[in-house]
Prior knowledge:
The complex is a heterodimer of chains A (260) and B (350).
Chain A lengths: L8 E10 L2 E11 L4 E5 L6 H8 L7 E6 L2 E2 L5 H7 E4 L11 H6 L14 H11 L15 H14 L4 E5 L7 H16 L3 E5 L3 H7 L2 E6 L2 E6 L1 H4 L2 H8 L3 E6 L2 E6 L4
Parallel strand pairs in A: 3-8, 3-9, 6-7, 7-8
Antiparallel strand pairs in A: 1-2, 1-4, 4-5, 9-10, 11-12
Helix pairs in contact in A: 4-5
Chain B lengths: L1 H30 L7 H11 L11 H36 L6 H4 L1 H15 L7 H22 E2 L2 E2 L1 H25 L2 H12 L7 H20 L1 H7 L3 H6 L4 H23 L5 H13 L3 H25 L8 H24 L4
Antiparallel strand pairs in B: 1-2
Amino acid sequence: MSPYSSRVITAAEVGVDLDGVTVLDGVSLDVIPGEVLCLVGPNGAGKSTLLAVLSGERRPTRGTVAIGGRELGGIRHTELARLRSVLTQENSVSFPFRVSEVVAMGRAPWARTLEGRDDVRAVTEAMDATDIRHLATRRYTALSGGERARVSLARVLAQRAGTVFLDEPTASLDLRHQEDVMRIARGLAAEGRAVVVVVHDLSLASAYADRLALVAGGRLEAIGSPAEVLTEERIERVYGLPVELHLVGGRPVVVPTRGT
Amino acid sequence: MAAAGAVRTRAVVLSTSLGVLLVVGVVASAMLGQLAVSPAEVVGSVLRAVGIPNSWAPTDPIVESTLWVVRFPRIAMALTVGAALAVAGAVMQAIFGNPLAEPGVVGVSSGSALGAAIAIVLGVTAFGTGSLAIFAFLGGLGATLLVYFVSRANGRTEVVTLLLTGIAINAFAGAGLAFMLFVADSGSREQIVFWQLGSLNGSRWSEVVIVAVVGVIGTAIAVLLGKRYDLLALGERNARHLGVDVEHLRVGSIVLVALLTGVAVAFVGIIAFVGLVVPHVIRMAIGPSHRPLIVASAFGGGALLVFADLLARSVVPGADLPIGLLTSLVGGPFFFFLLFRQRRQSGGWA
C-alpha cells in the first residue's frame, strides 16, 4: 500500500484566462498515483498552463483543482512542496553552486521534519538515477545544457514528493538521456507516485505513458491510453499534418507522412 | 559528503584567518596615531575594562582616554559599519539574483545620504540621536524599492538594467544632495560634504551602539533566511515550488538592506563597494552557500574597514583621508574586473 494513494489530484472544469484571452477551458481530469500521465499537444495548446494549474502554481480562473479533496489554493507553500515537486524549464542558477548542493536544495521542504533524516540518501539516489554522480563537485554554472537539465531533474527527484510534474524534461537531452528520463518517470509511478509529464514527442509519450492527455486550443481533446488517443485522423486534425501510425510493442509510433 | 566536508574545512580556515586579521587590525589601529600606544598597553587596557587587573594596562590617563574616547569607538564603528554593509551587499545580491548588486552601486547609499541630508537641513531631532538614522533608512528604503521594481524582469535582474537604474538613482540623489548643500547653512553644509566622502572620524559610542544593534539583528535575520536565499538562486518559480514564500522574502529583505545601509550611512557617510568586494571574495573562497557567506561577509567587512580606516588615517601623516575615497579607489577597478568577467562568461551584457 503506497502512502500516496489518497493523493489524487482532481481538476474539475478548469479554465484560465490570460489578459482576457482564454488559454484553457473546461478541462477535467484526474492525476492518479501509480500512473504516468503525459500531456501532449501542439505548441501554444495550453499544456504548460495546464501543468501550472495542476501543480498549484497558477490559480484557475474557473473551476477547481484539489488534492485528496483539499483545494490547492488553500495549501501553504511548504506543505505544497512536500506534496508535489515541479521540474520547470527554468534551468539557470544565479551563483556557482556545486552540483551536489543544487540537488540537496530539493530537500529544503523536509527541513525540520522526520523525513529530513533521509536527506543524504535521497540526494545520492537522485544523483544515481539521473547519472550525474560524476558531476557532484562541479560548479553548476560550468555545466552543459543537458547536464543542467539532469541536475534539475535530480533536484526534483530528491524532493521525494507524492506527485511529480515534469515540464518538457526531455527538451535538451540526447536520445539515451531522453529514454532515461522516461524510465525514471515510470520508476516513480511504480513506487506509487503520480507523474505528469509534458512531452512533445508523441512516440516517446506513447511508449511510456499509462494515459495520454491531448490538449489542443486550450481544451482537452482526448484522454486515455496511447492507443485510444493517438489515431491518424485525430493527430492530423490537431497538428495539421498527415501521419502514419505503426505499432511497436503494442504502442503506437507516430511518423509524419513524408513525400518520396 | 566529501564536497560538504571540504567546504566546511575551507570555511573554518577562512574564519580563523579573518579572526586573526581582525585582531591584528584592531590592535594595530589602536596603537597607531599621533599618540603612539604599545600593543601591551592596548591589550592591558581592554583587559582592565572587562575586569581583569593586570600590569600591562596604561597608567597615563591621556593614553587611556585616547584609547577609549577616540580610537576604540572609531574601531568599533569601522567593524560594525563594515559588517552591516557587507551583509547588505550579500542579501541584495541574493534577492536580485545578481552578483553585481551593491548598495553603493545601485544608489541605496546615496538614497540614504539624501535622507540624512534632509534631516540635517531641516534640523530634525524628533527621534534623538536616531533621527538621522531613521531618515537615512527611509531614503535607502525608497531607493531600494525603486531599483527593485524598475530593474527586475521575470524574477531576475539584468546587469545592464541594474546599472542603468543605479545611474539614474545616483544622479537623482546627487541632485537632491546638491540642492540640500545649496539651501543649507555653512554648518550643515560641512556635515553633508562629510557624508558624501564617508569618514569614521569622530565616531561616538552612542552612535556605535545604534549601528551595532541594527547590524547584529540584521545579520542574524539574514543568516536565518540564508537557506531561502540559496533556493532563490534557482529562480523565483523553482524557489516557490520548493516552498519559499518569495514575495514576503523579497519585501522583508529589501527592508533589511535599507536598514543595514541606512544605519551605516547615517553615521559615517557613503562607503561604497564594501558590499560588492567582500561577499565576492568570500564566495570565491568558500562558495555561494548563503549562511556561511553572510557570516563570513560580516567578519570580512569589519576587517576590511578596520584596515581601510587604518590606511585612511596613516597614509598621509597628520591628515585623515575620507575612507569612502579609499574604498572606491580599490572597489572601482574591482567592479570593472567583475563586469568584464561576467560579460565574457555570458557572452554579452546579460
